Amino acid sequence: MRTRDFDYRLPQELIASRPAADRAASRMLVLHRGSGRIEHRMFRELPEFLRAGDLVVLNDTRVIPARVITDDGKVELLCLDRISPLEWRCLVRPGKRMKPGRTVEVGGITGEVVEVFDNGDRLLRWSAPVDLDRHGRLALPHYMGRDDEPADRERYQTVYACAEGAIAAPTAGLHFTPEMLARLDHAFLTLHVGVGTFRPVKAEWPEDHVMHSERFELGAETARRVNAAGRVVAVGTTVTRVLEAVGQRSAVSGQRVPQGEHKGETDIFIRPPFKFRAVDVLLTNFHLPMSTLLMLVSAFGGREAVLDAYREAVAECYRFFSYGDCMLVV
After folding, report:
1. What stretches of the chain show up as alpha helix (H) in DSSP?
2. In this prediction, what percent of the chain has a pLDDT beyond 70?
3. Is 242 exposed, middle or buried (0-12, 13-18, 19+ CB in 10 A)?
4. What phi, psi does 21 have (nearest 5°)?
5. What pLDDT band is residue 196 in, cutting at 50, 70 and 90?
6. Strands, E, within 19-161: which ranges?
7. Closest Cα partner for 124 from 134, 113, 135, 116?
8. How many H helices and E strands in the chain?
9. Domain check: are 178 and 49 in the same one?
10. Which is nearest to 156 in space by CA: 12, 293, 24, 18?
11. What's CA 146's distance to the chain center, in Å?
12. Could you give the CA distance from residue 147 to residue 195 in angstroms, rounded to a whole number?
């Protein structure tokens, strides 16, 4: 398949630039994989599609205000990874002049470029810790067409976010409320969503696209519960990527993931065809045309069925992308 095989038409007015007033009030398109049947429901009806023994797995990463503008307003830094309180791996714009030895200031604190990586990222070393809560801003996706606002500090986080380190939110989880979580048997893992979530697939053939690695952690108790579950319901593509990346290592028949704790980085690229070992049901938002996320959903639900569902979502005026509605693939 070519990258263009995952394209679809989306009117600009269906892109959600702001969240709905109520997290759980989102619409939910339900795609039945076996038949291709589509239902139009509300997110609050999610429990109707779950069975006894199902385990809902969520990503508890917390978005940090990673976008920083230098004091002189000339350079934008996107903190990809805080290696230590004084060292950041950054995406820098404009980057041409940001060579080793170049310095910038944020909040009066000096940062020096000490290394330029092969992919253009920079390693900055600061003279003192920079307070991101004070000087940073959320790196909202470009398609929202706006800078972050105070309300985004709460709404661009899941209600269960706790492990700091993501640049972007695991958006399928934005629909959940504490009341909804209390009704479901659930467990957590962590994947810190990185800059790769914003990068389009520019290659003609998907296999030529280079994925960005993202840090993850899957605890031993969550692994045990995943293996004991009747069905695993992945909340989002990030959860799916962790479970399937770890699951590929499992050599035990009937075991979704190896037992024990798993930590590391993954650059797994899930696209058709793909044999899923761990995930049985997927809850996800609607994704950009020709994106790696849409390819993952297509691998799970079938490309033609998923694109048919997207066309119906457009016809029914669903809200798309991070602050938009959701899709349940069962």
Report:
1. 132-135, 152-155, 178-182, 220-228, 237-247, 292-301, 303-315
2. 99
3. buried
4. -60, -35
5. confident
6. 27-31, 38-42, 54-59, 61-63, 67-69, 76-84, 87-93, 103-106, 109-116, 122-126, 136-137
7. 113
8. 7, 18
9. yes
10. 18
11. 20
12. 17
d(CA 247, CA 99): 41
Give a yes or no: residue 142 inside a domain: no
Same domain, 59 and 84: no
Q: What residue type is assigned to position 134 of the chain?
A: R
Q: What is the pTM of this model?
A: 0.94
pLDDT tens, 38-88? 999 999 999 999 999 999 999 999 999 999 999 999 999 999 988 999 999
Domain end marker among 105, 137, 169? 137
120 lies in the same domain as 155: no
Residues 281, 232 contacting (CB under 8 angstroms): yes
Tokens of 58: 């969520």
Q: For the chain, what is the domain count?
A: 2
What's 110's domain CATH number? 2.40.10.240
> Could you tell me the two tokens for 57?
């797995």
Q: Do residue 81 and residue 53 come from a single domain?
A: no
Nearest to 258 by CA among 281, 224, 287, 230: 224
Whether 306 and 324 share a structural domain = yes
Asked if residue 119 has pLDDT above 90, the reply is no
- The three-class DSSP label of residue 68 is strand
- Residue 109 structural domain: 67-137
